[in-house]
Amino acid sequence: MRKKVLVLFGGRSCENEVSIVTGVMAANLLDAERYEVFPVYLSQEGKLYTGESLLDVQTFRGGGYKKSAQSALLSEGVLYVRRKNKLRPVCRPDAALNCCHGAGGEDGEAAALFALNRIPDASPAVAGSAICMDKALTKIAAKGLGIRTLPYFRIAEGDWRKRGNMALRCIEERLGYPVIVKPARQGSSIGIGVAEDRAKLVAAVQAAFAYDDLLIAEKYLADRREINCAAYRRGEEIVLSPCEEPKSAHKYYTFAEKYLEGGKTRTSDLPADIPAECAAQVQAYTRLLYKRLQLRGVVRADFLLSGKEVYFSELNTVPGSLAWYLFCQKLSEFPQMLTALVEQGICDFRARANKRMLGECGVLGRAGGRKHPRR
Q1: How far is it, in rounded angstroms, from Cα 172 to Cα 266?
Q2: Phi, psi of 192 (to 5 degrees)
Q3: Can you list the alpha helix ranges (DSSP code H) found in 150-306?
């Protein structure tokens, strides 16, 4: 009997459309002989939809999914559809694959939804997702593991309003110019700006706060090269991709270069033309992060290379297109990788399922007969 796999995509984020492309691709490429696939779309309004029409990207143009798909709900491990204010069960998923990029999915919310419903998850769990979504927290974790990062400064929007001039002075004294400013919990280069002086820094900070209430300013290296490496687990083995160097005509790899201008002809060097010791360092760091943060599924770690110095930048727990192109020579090889992800998620869930849970421990019996707790 085929296993039922729920593929979640979309999300309450700026990367909703990118996630649709990733999710629809994965849902269509899962091995049909092994799995029965149930696509579930999470809209930017936070509503769930399901139905076979969601297997076609064209369904989402102009909001067409609202007419062709059905409103859905996950409860007690069962996927339901709503019909005339009634719930009809669709399936009890054997596994779930998270393809939501950005907030509302990649940040641990999707993982929490699956965990609460006791659905085996083929993607990173709550803790790893939440840490990696916050660029400042990820850098703290990397530093704790002995992985080098560039100097940075964290700014909360509330602090900026109260002590903005102090924040500017701290950035100038600690980092100097130029600096790159990023929303701390966004992806796909959204809201990013590079500043060479105070006026541009203020503009970059204000622009970044339009997308998040937390941001980081980081030292910008003029001779920087962006290097990526992806990983996933297959049994006891952590599978690492070759290093990739995306090509950019700008100061950083932009959203347009990632998804619009180069969408059909990806411009990158794979493997990256970098010294062997640098490639080995990037892969070692990627392995260390994957292992120590107890990640699952496929992730992509992004680094900066300046000369022969390697600096960790950020880690994506739901990378675009699930980073299949870093592991597979051709798309026809991707289903085998998806199978490994799903089966690993099921295996990990079973390993945790037999852990003990403390039930009736006597606390309620000792609470006495008071109807209301003391305040």
Answers
A1: 36
A2: -90, 145
A3: 157-174, 198-208, 255-259, 276-292
Instruction: With cut-offs at 50, 70 and 90, classify the pLDDT of residue 37.
Output: very high
- Give which of 193, 303, 208 is closest to 246, Cα–Cα: 303
Residue of 31, 30, 9 whose CA lies nearest to 20: 9
8-state DSSP, 353: H
Tokens of 267: 């411009």
What tokens were used for 192?
């990013």
- pLDDT at residue 254 tops 80: no
Q: Tell me how far CA of residue 188 lies from CA of 4, 318, 325, in angstroms.
A: 31, 11, 17
User: What phi, psi does 305 have (nearest 5°)?
Assistant: -120, 125
Distance of CA 99 to the CA centre of its chain: 8
CA distance 221 to 358: 52
pLDDT above 60: residue 243: yes
Q: What is the pLDDT of residue 371?
A: 62
Residues 313/192, Cβ–Cβ less than 8 Å: no
What are the backbone dihedrals phi and psi of residue 228, each rounded to the nearest 5 degrees, phi first? -115, 150
Q: What is the mean pLDDT of residues 136-152?
A: 95
Pick the closest to residue 150 from 178, 191, 185, 187 (CA basis).
178
How does the average pLDDT of the chain come out, rounded? 91
